[in-house]
Amino acid sequence: MSVDIYKKVRANPKFAELEGKRSRFALLLTAIVMVSYYGMMMVVAFAPDFMRTPISAGSTLTIGVPVGAVIIIGSWLLTGWFVSRANGEFDSMNNEIVREATK
Predict the structure, then answer these.
(1) Which pTM was predicted?
(2) Where are the domains of the chain?
(3) pLDDT for 60-78, tens place per residue?
(4) Contact call for residues 21 and 90 (beta carbons, < 8 A)
(5) DSSP count for the chain of H helices, then E strands
(6) Can you tell me the distance from the alpha carbon of 29 to that of 95, in angstroms, rounded to the nearest whole number?
(7) Distances from the Cα of 53 to the Cα of 27, 34, 41, 48, 70, angstroms
């Protein structure tokens, strides 16, 4: 693309809207993952007995295993949500901005 098209894209108010939406969404998902992961690490560090509590009497499976699995699977799901939204809403906004700039 030429420099003129880049200038038109940057000047388009829809570009600022796209940047804002994408940034807020990425920061929200990042915060969710970080809080859940570091929250688990804090529990492991300061209340380890909770994480090694068996799920049921006589069980060798502790609470920490499903909690860790939920965090990992939740991270995958959040990544999928971001990719889905990026390939849908964000890409269509981007294409519209570029189309307007190349007119």
Answers:
(1) 0.81
(2) 3-101
(3) 999 999 999 999 999 999 9
(4) yes
(5) 5, 0
(6) 24
(7) 33, 24, 16, 9, 17
